[in-house]
Amino acid sequence: MAKIGRFRNDAARTRFMRAYEALEAQWPIASTLRDIETSFGSTHVRQSGSGTGTPLVLLHPVGGNSLYWRNIIEALAGDRIVYALDTIGTAGRSVQTAPVRSEADLARWLDEVLGALGVERAHVLGYSHGAWHATLFALRTPGRLASLTLIEPGGVFVKPSWSVLLKMLRVGMRPTDRNMRRMQEWLTPGITMSETEWDMAMAVFRGFRMGLGWARLLKDAELHAITTPTLVIFGGESVSGDAEAAARQARRLPNSEVEIYPGIGHGILDQIPGTIVPRVLDFIEKYEAVPAQPTNGAK
C-alpha cells in the first residue's frame, strides 16, 4: 500500500481534468468546494445541501471520484449536509503527498478530514471500493459514526472468483478501447456511459497509478467488532462475488440489515437509484439519534 497516487504524465492528467471539469458542470445543486490538509496530502471535498440532519459522507468506487454522486446528490442532500470526497490516493482533485502505509493510515486520513470539517459524527456511505474504506473507518473510529452503509462491498465478505480476477488481469494487460468497453458491460450490465464519463474512465485506467491497497476479507473478530448500525446491499447478479455467500457473512455483523436485489449487477446505484436511494435515506433516518460507539483502538 506504500505508494503515492499520481498520473503517469502531464498528458494523462490533462485528459483526466478535461473530463472532470466537464462533469463538474453537471453537478445539479449548489456546492462549496473545500481542500482539507491531512497527514497524507490535500483532500478535495464537495459540500452540498443543508439542514439539521447528521451529515452524510460519501466514499466513491475505484476509478471514480466525488463527481460519481452527481445523479443522486439532490435526493441525498434533502435535509442534511453531504460531503462527497475525492479519496486520497485516487484520481481527482485531491493531491497525495505521503503514502498510506496501512489500513490504520486510511482510517486516520478520513478521521482527519472529518475533524477539519468540524464533523463530530456522520453517516458514512461507501460504494464498492469505497465500502472497504468505510469498513476500515468503522473498525477504528466507531465513535464518529452514526451509521454505515456498504453498497456492493466487493472482497470484504467473500473473495472474488479466480475467473473474475483473471478476466480483469487480461484486460489490464491489453486495455484497448474494445476490451475496456466489454469489461464495463460485463461489470455493470445495462449501464451506458456518456463519452465524457468514458474519457474519464480511460484516463484513470491508462494514466493513473492508485496509491491505495485493495480490499480483503474481514476476519471473524472484525465482523463481530463492527457494532455500528450497518446497511449492506448486494446486487444478486453482481460479478464481484457470490451475493448469497457475502450476505451470509454480512449478517454476522452484530447490528446489520442485509439485502440482495435479484437480477441487479454491480452497478446497482446506476441501475435502480429510485429503489436504493430511498432505502438508504430510510436507514440513516432510523439511526439519527443512536448513541456513539466507543473507539475500539483496532490496528
From TrEMBL:
Gene3D superfamilies for this protein: alpha/beta hydrolase (3.40.50.1820)
GO molecular function per UniProt: hydrolase activity
Alphabetized SUPFAM superfamilies for the sequence: alpha/beta-Hydrolases
GO cellular component terms listed in the entry, alphabetical order: membrane
UniProt keyword terms in alphabetical order: Hydrolase
UniProt domain AB hydrolase-1: residue ranges: 55-160
Keyword Hydrolase belongs to the record: yes
Domain of life: Bacteria
Pfam hit, one: Abhydrolase_1
PANTHER family named among the record's database cross-references: HYDROLASE, PUTATIVE (AFU_ORTHOLOGUE AFUA_2G14860)-RELATED, MONOACYLGLYCEROL LIPASE
Protein name: Alpha/beta fold hydrolase
Organism: Nocardia terpenica
Lineage of origin: Bacteria, Bacillati, Actinomycetota, Actinomycetes, Mycobacteriales
